Amino acid sequence: MSPEEENTISVDGRLVDLRNRPLAALLAWLIPGAGHYYQGRTTKAAIFFVCILSTWILGFGLGGKHVVYSSWQPGDKRWHYFLQAGAGVVALPAYLQGRRMNDATDALSLSTNPNYEPLWGGLMAPPYRPVIENQADEVAAWYATYGAGYEMGTWYTVIAGLLNILVIYDAYGGPLSVPISGRKIEDETDPDDEPEDERETSKTST
Amino acid sequence: MEGKQRMLPISLTYMLYYFPLIIAIAIVFGATRHESIEMIQFHAWQTGKWITGFMGVIFIVLYVIGWIT
């Protein structure tokens, strides 16, 4: 079997060449839909690009552009970022900002150095430290300013990242199987239902 | 009880957050299971209906519990 045949699958009655699967998965993570575009599945690429990025950007806006940031400090363990980063390159500025903030945080007092200036006007920058639960810190101010939008914005961006994990899988291994997919129908085809010419072919080949 | 009555109209505003999310989720779910656009549409519609129905049942259960207590 040639490498092309190994990467070709049959879904919904059509053949799909997955090409270089790891590369497609990497592209799918970096930009939602890019992996599918690389594989020539342009309609699905457009669907994923629009659906995932619009959800992510809408959530980012709802939360006042403060819902995506990277921080793992006492009082501010932002686990949501691991899921938000599923949407790829759009979440990477938060990682850089988080690294810079860590460098500017005093190890003992866990306070931000007064000389610290975030990059890009504070886009995806973590809050000034210390962040203490139930205290009037910067995170509390964001919640007070954006209200439900901050909470919903967090969930929108998290869900967008999670959806892109499905997309990455689809780019790597093809669609997830469902009972009504073409693959299933093909597997369960009753020999009596085969068209006349196909039956002739299978007979001659055996 | 007054507080509960005030919350119900507010929850309709919260529904505005629901629509973009359910559309995106349903379409991505459909598109990660099919290649044919017709089957993607069908699967997305089914997913949207299923999630909305599930949420509706949860809402009714919580509403009834709230009404009883």
Please describe what this structure looks like.
The complex is a heterodimer of chains A (206) and B (69). Chain A is mainly alpha-helical and 206 residues long. Chain A has one domain (3-173). Chain A has ten helices and four strands. Chain A has helices at residues 3-6, 21-30, 34-38, 42-62, 80-84, 92-103, 138-146, 148-173, 182-187, 196-205; strands spanning 8-11, 14-17, 72-73, 76-77. In chain A, the strands form two sheets. Chain A has a two-stranded antiparallel ribbon with strand order 1-2. Chain A has a two-stranded antiparallel ribbon with strand order 3-4. In chain A, strand 1 and strand 2 (14-17) form a beta hairpin. Chain B has 69 residues and is mainly alpha-helical. Chain B has one domain. Chain B has helices at 2-31, 37-68. The longest helix of chain B is centred in the last third of the chain and has 32 residues, at 37-68. Chain B starts with a helix and ends with a helix. Chains A and B meet through helix 4 and helix 8 of A and helix 1 and helix 2 of B.
Listing every helix as H and every strand as E from the N terminus to the C terminus, the arrangement of chain B reads HH
How many strand segments of chain A?
4
> What's the pLDDT, averaged over the residues of chain A?
85
β content of chain B, as a range?
under 5%
Rg from alpha-carbon coordinates of chain B: 16 Å
- How do the SSEs of chain A run, as a string of H and E? HEEHHHEEHHHHHH
Number of helices of chain A: 10
- Trace the largest sheet of chain A across and list its strands: 1-2
Count of individual beta strands of chain B: 0
Radius of gyration of chain A: 24 Å
